[in-house]
């Protein structure tokens, strides 16, 4: 990135932080973006062929897609075709979360790890979403005193249109205590990620840690999580740690020792053994494969 591009990026980020949102068009000059933890939620409508990396998974598509990015989950894209077109909207959590309704939208499967962040669109769906983005663009530059609220409504409309495309993925009702405690556990687990710095290593690493944080007996937590998800609490924790470990190995220059410490392992050897047991590989081989 040259000095001019760096200045433009800085200005863009400053404007976004001040307003809490930014809507813009994407075009053929885009070169994709690097894998990183973002500061903002993102919704983008894109046409073109490219490879998308989300956490430790990758998607390849050459159809119009709608993408939902969570600032806690790292992602990047590689442009394959020389031309793309579309729209994108970046916004902060505080900008959207002015009501319980808005908060529930951020908890939808569209923004969650393991959910459905990428939806393939047909022509009619693409045109519908594009029209909403165009309205947001027009309002962004207007002097309308309530334009922030209107843009929030447009963002919510896009989310609802996407949820209608994936009806089976809609968030379930919390019908009983087991479901409620499981939901809180999973939210608390996910809230610890991504690991941004070795200065703030993982704090909740065991079922006992989570049970203490939730003020419940560990047996009650374990039975609830197993009843609702079919998987033990320890498996959820281990799977999430492995997912983060892969992301850090593939997309940062941290040493294996740094990653081990950041993920709560007292000794690198413990991390290596844990990783090998869960994946069949050693951390260094995953790092080498990504170079």
Describe it:
- InterPro entries: Homeodomain-like_sf, HTH_AraC.
- Pfam families: HTH_18.
- The structure is a single chain.
- This protein has a five-stranded antiparallel beta sheet with strand order 1-8-3-6-9.
- α4 packs antiparallel against α5 and α6 crosses α8.
- The protein folds into two domains: 167 residues, Regulatory protein AraC (Jelly Rolls, Sandwich), CATH 2.60.120; 114 residues, Homeodomain-like (Arc Repressor Mutant, subunit A, Orthogonal Bundle), CATH 1.10.10.60.
- The chain is built from twelve helices and nine strands.
- The N terminus is likely disordered.
- With 291 residues, it is an alpha+beta fold.
Q: So, the CATH homologous superfamily of the largest domain? A: Regulatory protein AraC
How would a textbook summarize the main sheet?
5 strands, antiparallel
Major β-sheet strand ordering: 1-8-3-6-9
**What is the strand content?**
15-25%
- In DSSP terms (H or I, runs of 4 or more residues), the helix count works out at 12
**SSE string:** HEEEEEEEEHHEHHHHHHHHH
Structural class given helices, strands, pairing? alpha+beta
Question: Which spans have pLDDT < 50 for at least 5 consecutive residues?
Answer: 1-10, 168-175
Counting structural domains, the number is 2
What would the principal axes of the Cα set say about the shape?
Answer: globular
What name does the CATH topology of the largest domain carry?
Jelly Rolls
How far do the termini sit from each other?
Answer: 21 Å
Which percent bin holds the helix content?
Answer: 40-55%
Compute the number of strand runs: 9
Radius of gyration based on Cα positions? 20 Å
Mean pLDDT, all residues: 81
Give the CATH level 1 class of the largest domain: Mainly Beta
CATH architecture of the largest domain: Sandwich
